[in-house]
Amino acid sequence: MAALGGDGLRLLSVSRPERQPESAALGGPGPSLCCWVSVFSCLSLACSYVGSLYVWKSELPRDHPAVIKRRFTSVLVVSSLSPLCVLLWRELTGIQPGTSLLTLMGFRLEGIFPAALLPLLLTMILFLGPLMQLSMDCPCDLADGLKVVLAPRSWARCLTDMRWLRNQVIAPLTEELVFRACMLPMLAPCTGLGPAVFTCPLFFGVAHFHHIFEQLRFRQSSVGSIFLSAGHLIGPVLCHSFCNYMGFPAVCAALEHPQRWPLLAGYALGVGLFLLLLQPLTDPKLYGSLPLCVLLERTGDSEAPLCS
């Protein structure tokens, strides 16, 4: 090598082939077109999900059992077909994830227990103040509350309540499937994993603005209170269900509560602990190998911060 001299070294450096992204090697479209395909696919999914809620014409409010049952049908159909959008995206972009579609979407057994427990624990810590408020305002003590929660009759009553099924089961499952499991793999190769994690909730939030028009139409709330509450796979589904149960934190009620100072301390402590524990409890090493990181490596983004 030394005998070649400087010119020989320059020749070798020029002739060495550079590493190409996987999508380019497969003859797929350029990065710009891939991003447009990804964004359009996500918009199509969001519009399809929301549009499925309105295929049934009705003058009844959204909480009427008949409306809920009809929407169950349309939403479950759209959610079941949503993985086909990811398959179509894969064909249009030429990107090969290097893993099965279900694994890429988050359906896997590896790391399932920490994925189910740690995010839910973190979310409950964030809601420490509202949980304290709920316990203070509850007329029963802890023992009586546990008896009610564990009673088969209570669960049977919940399973026959259309609003409970919508808020705690169907909505978390279908929304996380469409707005996270399907959208995240399509956005990550375009924006990177970090921005994609924050972009998916934007689609989710915009898709929920139809609640504003429904609540105004039936005069169920004021404009101000609606905007405060309109925006809000095992881990996200459980956290989503918990947030639906808790609702938007009643900060104003806490300020007027007889025990407002302990409550406000609980609110502050919950937010502080959440920020303190956010990074260690969401460390990817706790949840096994990440299929999305395999996807990013194959598309040439092997230096993703969340994957290192």
Q: Characterize the biggest β-sheet.
A: none
* Cα Rg: 24 Å
User: What's the total number of strands?
Assistant: 0
End-to-end separation in angstroms reads 35 Å
Describe the structure.
With 308 residues, this protein is mainly alpha-helical. It has one domain. 71% of the residues lie in helices and 0% in strands. It is built from 17 helices and no strands. It is globular, with a radius of gyration of 24 Å. The two termini are 35 Å apart. Residues 164-246 form the CAAX prenyl protease 2/Lysostaphin resistance protein A-like domain. It catalyses: Hydrolyzes the peptide bond -P2-(S-farnesyl or geranylgeranyl)C-P1'-P2'-P3'-COOH where P1' and P2' are amino acids with aliphatic sidechains and P3' is any C-terminal residue. One of its GO terms (cellular component) is endoplasmic reticulum membrane. The chain crosses the membrane at residues 36-56, 68-89, 109-128, 226-248, 260-278.
